[in-house]
Amino acid sequence: MICDKDTVLKKLLHYCSYQDRSLYEVCVKLKSFDLPSNEYDDILKILIDEGFVDDKRYAESFVRAKLRYRKWGVNKIRAELRNKGIDASIIDKALLDVDPDIYYNTLLSLLQSKKTENPDLFKEKNRLMRFALQRGYQFEMIQCALDDIFNK
């Protein structure tokens, strides 16, 4: 069944209206419809002009959400945004809005919540280091946070 341009546009407007989407995500969704490829550019232009697709806005909200709710580090956020087709310059600008103090305190609270009373201090620090690296935090920042936690 071939969809017409208006039907696809309506579906994509709904798709973009309830959650911010990157241009890459919208292109993937657009290709899932049975629409002639010569119509793609017109639909994308409408979505961008009407403000339904904006990679800058998407990156900023993605950074805020992942820092605040998922407690991800900037390395993991950067990698995820790259996977979603966001330009590196947009990613860098979105990450500039991260408050270093809040970011560091988030890491501290995350590590303190995962800390156990392991008698082997070396193993405990390594376990926490691996955990924080998987979350996307920078090595040097993790070391400082671990020093703060274990030298109290």
Task: Explain the overall architecture.
The protein has helices spanning about 5-15, 25-30, 40-50, 55-70, 75-85, 90-95, 100-115, 120-135, 140-150. With about 150 residues, it is mainly alpha-helical. The protein folds into 3 domains: about 5-50; about 55-95, Arc Repressor Mutant, subunit A (Orthogonal Bundle); about 100-150. The chain is built from 9 helices and no strands. Helix 5 (about 75-85) runs antiparallel to helix 6 (about 90-95), helix 7 (about 100-115) crosses helix 9 (about 140-150) and helix 8 (about 120-135) runs antiparallel to helix 9. The model has no long low-confidence stretch (mean pLDDT about 95). The longest helix has 16 residues, at about 55-70.
Present the secondary structure layout.
Elements: H1 5-17, H2 23-32, H3 40-49, H4 55-70, H5 74-83, H6 88-96, H7 100-114, H8 121-134, H9 139-150
Helix pairs in contact: 4-6, 5-6, 7-9, 8-9
What's the quick description here?
The chain has about 150 residues and is mainly α.
What's the number of extended β-strand segments?
0
* Rounded Rg: 21 Å
Shape: elongated
Mean pLDDT: 93
Global structural class: mainly alpha
Q: What is the total number of structural domains?
A: 3
Strand content: under 5%
Largest sheet: none
Q: What is the subunit arrangement here?
A: single chain
| Span between termini | 67 Å
Order of helices and strands: HHHHHHHHH
Low-confidence stretches: none
The helical percent reads over 70%
Number of separate helices: 9
